[in-house]
């Protein structure tokens, strides 16, 4: 009888300890995530959790508890469910810290789709850390899978508890995943105290916590419906700009020109930054071309990354600024849901162009293989199908010179005009141990070794571009090139960042080149632009037939030459917010309505000649 009483007494104690243990694990893991988000500042973590934002910290911990119980019920084991939870949170926090360090922006839910990109992840974080994380993950998944297999031996009572817990936590996680729904109770609880900052995800995560920021970036509509959106409104807009299209020289041209887009990975001028100088100019070959043609600075959406978003803007002429802030990567979040999206590719395909995309890397990055198919490319040449695969010294990526040779081979087909979209990889991070030595020596406020190596990288890239444009002079068909860097590399120290305003950290180089030297703006070398303006600007300057859509963008560019969230260039000055007069507002709203119509609306404009 005494033994039975002792067992009964021990059970409440055991369950109490289990509950305390699970709660402690959740709280510690939430503190860890916040620690990684706040760049390892323990002081900020303590103040966030226990002074400034306690309510939001508790709400985030509640979501983590649901996730932990989900894993435990799935595994049929508190121990192994907790083990996989710990490994998952550990890797997530480390990834967030790495992304904050290199790109000054946090991890988004959509970033988790990159988890299978082993090659790129290894190159970004280093072989040893990558192998360690991979080993830990494999061990954790092994024991977790083993636990699921052994769970069939649990008693009937425990199976009922386990299955009930699994169903309940699964339903709760599905509910949490709809965080951005209008009537979501969790979102309403956050809204009581949360100050969401849509234009700056870094500040958004800082103010609402890692969990708050992460939840905020769960699935959402690409754009909110404008109040005046209707079929009639779209028809009025399309008719207005289609009627404005001026007669160009297209009808008198003997043949259509080749068009080449070159998005050069991390290409920028390091000496554009205060605090960075060099003994000689690594971009000398680039400027030899730029000073003879239309060129200047491009406003990049991101620092240190965001390649696919810049590519999206350049191909579609749709702006990331107009999207809801949670639409962080259209290539993976938007285009896979679409069957058609108007772009320069679809426009030129309608004019009998052959359209080819070239990326000297694998086809799975940002779902490019599927995206390019939806956009309308005839073929996608990747590292596996390229003819030229030479690399420079110890650089792990195919060189720009090889990529340009691939383009030149396509231009040998003189029967049809070519549209070629090249996304290079030579100058991708990391920037150490690529070359035996650098011909450039920088004076910089920190990280000199990486900056010197980067200068060598862009010098090789500049040289390859000059060789490419020289070779184009021998191509009989008129050939137009748009070349730009997608973003700055994530190599600059906090001291360098402090010496430069935010705009400087988002400015890269761009130029437009005509092998027949006929661009109308060839004497402009200090232009300022955004990538969604590239196609209409090229069409306008080269005398190609404009579309109604490009006419709208051309007029908008004259008023607001460059803009992204938090960066607006108007009237020769930068501002954090966009202030427009009535005529400018009309242009901006027309653009917003057209973009909404395509990405979230009824696609009324596709049934017109607006994009043709």
TrEMBL record:
The organism's place on the tree of life at top rank: Bacteria
InterPro entries per record: Alkaline_phosphatase_core_sf, OpgB/LTA_synthase_biosynth, Sulfatase_N
A Pfam family assignment: Sulfatase
UniProt keyword annotations, A-Z: Cell membrane, Membrane, Transmembrane, Transmembrane helix
Organism: Enterococcus ureasiticus
Record membrane topology: Multi-pass membrane protein
Biological pathway: Cell wall biogenesis; lipoteichoic acid biosynthesis
Localization, UniProt: Cell membrane
GO cellular component: plasma membrane
Protein name: Sulfatase N-terminal domain-containing protein
Residue ranges of domain Sulfatase N-terminal in the record: 257-543
Transmembrane segments: 57-76, 83-102, 128-148, 160-177
